[in-house]
Specification:
Number of domains of chain A: 1
Mean pLDDT of chain B: 85
Low-confidence stretches of chain A: none
Order of helices and strands of chain A: HEEHEEE
Shape of chain B: globular
Number of helices of chain A: 2
Order of helices and strands of chain B: HHHEEHEEEE
Radius of gyration of chain A: 14 Å
Strand content of chain B: 35-45%
Helix content of chain A: 25-40%
Largest sheet of chain B: 6 strands, mixed
CATH topology of chain A: Nuclear Transport Factor 2, Chain: A
Shape of chain A: globular
Oligomer: heterodimer
């Protein structure tokens, strides 16, 4: 499978799900999954989704600027994303990397 | 950083990993990803800023760098790219370092900060992701490296 195609498909799915219905991200994570969000470390799909659905905004839109990917060994893939995050009601978008 | 400095840092990283004790608790403590990440980041950027050619021993033949979208493979080509960047002097200032174990004994390190080029008025903002893998000798090398400038 072409890593670039996998990365592109994943990124589109992840951010459109995030923006439409954060709870829908649950099946992208497993028990051993780890999220570090602004320095806070969280483990496991349940806790990760609890964190994401409790973020203090209702509506948001991710605009993706760059997507880079590389095979990471052992059949895995690294995906590195940058873009901005527009929160409803906020004047300025926030820049992020993930 | 001169070769004596590199040797002592390599000793520090190695000492973190092998302290001669057989207990599992000691081993767990010495494989602390946060400690590995911090030591690596300090070493990587100080070497980059002092002598980019000195980064060669951090990469191997299978290492990959994606630099502003350009894909490069292997230590030789990677160092050739980094030493040919169009500036002489630079200084990295690191704002954040996050890390997680990556499975297969590796460590993911996610860095953000600024890059000040000599003679330029404004520093450039950047993000960089490293995937470090253990070597048989007990240190780490960079398997994956992705660098992006963060524009307005």
């Amino acid at each position: 499978m072409d890593p670039d195609a996998v990365a592109k498909a994943f990124v589109e799915h992840y951010y459109s799900t995030f923006d439409a219905n954060r709870a829908g991200l649950a099946n992208l994570y497993q028990e051993g999954s780890m999220l570090t969000f602004e320095g806070q470390k969280i483990q496991g799909s349940q806790s990760i989704v609890a964190k994401l659905t409790s973020l203090p905004f209702q509506q948001c839109k991710h605009n993706i600027t760059t997507v880079d990917c590389q095979p990471s060994g052992s059949g895995g893939m690294l995906v590195f994303v940058s873009g901005n995050l527009q929160l409803a009601g906020e004047q300025h978008a926030l820049k992020f990397s993930q | 950083m001169g070769s004596a400095g590199l040797a002592s840092l390599n000793y520090c990283v190695t000492a973190l990993l092998f302290d001669g004790s057989n207990s599992d608790k000691q081993k767990e403590k010495s494989m602390d990803p946060d400690a590995v990440a911090k030591a690596f980041v300090d070493h990587y950027y100080s070497t980059f800023d002092a002598n980019r050619a000195g980064l060669a021993n951090l990469y191997q033949e299978g290492s990959m760098l994606t630099f502003e979208g350009q894909k490069i493979q292997g230590s030789q080509s990677i160092v050739a790219k980094l030493t040919s960047l169009p500036f002489q002097q630079c200084k990295h200032n690191i704002s954040t370092v996050d890390c997680q174990p990556s499975g297969a004994g590796g460590v993911l390190v996610f860095v953000s900060g600024t890059l000040q080029l000599a003679g330029e008025q404004h520093a450039l903002k950047f993000s960089q992701m490293f995937h470090l893998m253990p070597t048989p000798q007990g240190s780490f090398y960079v398997l994956n490296d992705i660098f992006r400038l963060n524009y307005a």
